[in-house]
Design a protein that fits this description.
By secondary structure, the protein is mostly helical. The protein has helices spanning 5-8, 11-18, 25-37, 42-54, 59-71, 74-86, 90-98, 102-105, 108-120, 124-137, 142-155, 162-172. 72% of the residues lie in helices and 0% in strands.
Length: 179
């Protein structure tokens, strides 16, 4: 039996041709079939992740985990965290965050995503640590400053830090933070 043209396409070409046309099933099927034979094929993991993401499927997390495992780049690890948060999979988001290396700790986006994940599961102390890191890396990030002040205010049940309320009030008046 001769392989079909779809099976012979390289992953990058399939992404270029099929995905913009809205055909996500064929690239995903092709990638899954190829991955049965070779689990270390980064191009097919990327194709599967892109197709699942385009289909808005939570399966994109699984495929992206393998992309991150194989290529180890900061971008692929951040994408894994983004996808996990997008689909409410805090377990996988936190696992990726807790496995972070020194390169990630120098990334403002990493700290922003980590803070969101920790706040999402009610772990305020690690969220606050990531917000401190984010503010130290991006002093002009007013959203991070507001999130940090709100987190600290939530911990100040006794009202011993009245300055926090003033800080939040000043930050809330900034036009870029009004929604």
């Amino acid at each position: 039996k001769r392989p079909t043209a779809v099976k012979l396409m390289k992953p990058a070409r399939m992404t270029e041709q099929s995905m913009p046309a809205g055909d996500y099933d064929n690239p995903l099927l092709t990638a899954r079939q190829a991955l049965r034979d070779n689990q270390r094929n980064l191009a097919h993991w990327k194709l599967a992740a892109a197709a699942a993401k385009a289909k808005d499927s939570p399966d994109a997390i699984y495929y992206q985990q393998n992309v991150a495992r194989l290529d180890g780049s900061l971008d692929s690890r951040l994408e894994l965290i983004r996808l996990a948060l997008r689909y409410g999979d805090y377990r996988d988001a936190l696992a990726a965050i807790e496995a972070a290396d020194a390169e990630a700790t120098r990334s403002p986006e990493f700290h922003e995503l980590a803070a969101r994940a920790y706040l999402g599961v009610g772990r305020h102390v690690p969220a606050k640590m990531h917000l401190y890191s984010l503010v130290s890396l991006q002093g002009e990030n007013q959203t991070a400053r507001l999130d940090l002040a709100e987190t600290e205010l939530a911990e100040d049940a006794d009202g011993k830090k009245p300055q926090l309320r003033d800080d939040i009030r000043k930050l809330a008046e900034l036009p870029e933070l009004r929604t």
